């Protein structure tokens, strides 16, 4: 009986590219309308004032203004953009 599998092919070697998720613009930064603020899977961050959400839960600015992260309740964080 052989103790090792024949080395003809490997079962490993598959991996997907990173999706570059996360916060793209931080609190206090000035953003234009349409600027992506957060890329996420699901709603880790929720919608605040003057922001929209894409099909893939991306949060983006709707107005020119400053980004703010604020607590919605004990567990939820919201992202808002306030006109400056």
Topology of helices and strands:
Layout (H helix, E strand, L loop, with lengths): L21 E2 L6 E2 L4 E4 L5 E3 L3 E3 L5 E3 L3 E7 L5 E6 L2
Parallel strand pairs: 4-8
Antiparallel strand pairs: 1-3, 2-7, 3-6, 5-6, 7-8
Structural category is mainly beta
Low-confidence stretches at least 5 residues in length (pLDDT < 50)? none
Give the tally of β-strands. 8
Shape: elongated
DSSP summary: helix tally: 0
Fraction in beta strands: 35-45%
Helix percent reads under 10%
Give average pLDDT, whole number. Answer: 93
Helices and strands, in order, run as EEEEEEEE
Largest sheet: 4 strands, antiparallel
The spatial strand order of the largest sheet comes to: 1-3-6-5
Radius of gyration: 21 Å
What this model shows, in words?
The protein has 84 residues and is mostly beta strands. It is built from no helices and 8 strands. It has a 4-stranded antiparallel β-sheet with strand order 1-3-6-5, with no helix packed on it. A hairpin with a 5-residue loop joins β5 and β6 (59-61). It is elongated, with a radius of gyration of 21 Å. The mean pLDDT is 93.
Q: Which features characterize this protein?
A:
84 residues; single chain; four-stranded mixed sheet; mainly beta; four-stranded antiparallel sheet
Brief synopsis:
The chain has 84 residues and is an all-beta fold. It is built from no helices and 8 strands.
């Amino acid at each position: 009986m052989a103790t090792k599998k024949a080395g003809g092919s490997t079962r490993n070697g598959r991996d997907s590219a990173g999706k570059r998720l996360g916060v793209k613009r931080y609190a206090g930064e000035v953003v234009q309308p349409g600027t992506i603020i957060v890329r996420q899977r699901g709603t880790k961050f929720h919608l605040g004032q003057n922001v929209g959400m894409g099909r893939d839960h991306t949060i983006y600015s709707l107005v020119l203004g400053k980004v703010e992260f604020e607590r919605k309740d004990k567990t939820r964080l919201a992202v808002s953009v306030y006109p400056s």
